[in-house]
TrEMBL record:
Keywords: Cytokinin signaling pathway, Phosphoprotein, Two-component regulatory system
Pfam families cross-referenced by the UniProt entry: Hpt
Function: Functions as a two-component phosphorelay mediators between cytokinin sensor histidine kinases and response regulators (B-type ARRs). Plays an important role in propagating cytokinin signal transduction.
InterPro entries: AHP1-5/YPD1 (IPR045871), HPT_dom_sf (IPR036641), Sig_transdc_His_kin_Hpt_dom (IPR008207)
Superkingdom of this protein's organism: Eukaryota
Domain text: Histidine-containing phosphotransfer domain (HPt) contains an active histidine that mediates the phosphotransfer.
Protein name: Histidine-containing phosphotransfer protein
Positions carrying Phosphohistidine: 80
Chief location of this protein within or outside the cell: cytoplasm
PANTHER family: HISTIDINE-CONTAINING PHOSPHOTRANSFER PROTEIN 4, PHOSPHORELAY INTERMEDIATE PROTEIN YPD1
Domain HPt: 39-134
Amino acid sequence: MERNNHLRQQVANLRQSLFDQGYVDEQFIELEELQDDATPNFVEEVVTLFYKDSARLIHSIDHSLENHPLDFAKLDNYMHQFKGSSSSIGAKKVKTECTQFMEYCSAGNVEGCKRTFKQLKREHTALKKKLEVYFQYARLAGPTETASCRPK
């Protein structure tokens, strides 16, 4: 029992750090509130789908950034999709980079797009690692009522 309480505290701390460090926003809480006994891994499943979809988008954007001249309309479309899926899981830092990329697309700024895309991929990877640890501990701790808890 004590081990389980310790695990739950670690999960709560990891979750809080996701908010404190600006990796996730209120949308992440909205997802958690949809999770219940019937779908105990709902948030993890949605995040897994996000990473599958975003891997495809990253590949498409990487490929498009190699073309000369750049097709800013196509890049903006890809990034609009990326921003939408990032928003749906509450990936705050990733969404911010998507917005910045789209601004550079509108301005026709090739270097700004490339630089921002590198930063977006760093944020995307960092969030993935943090969420993997969080979900790993959450599975170990088992079901809990923290889904409705708001971050401090």
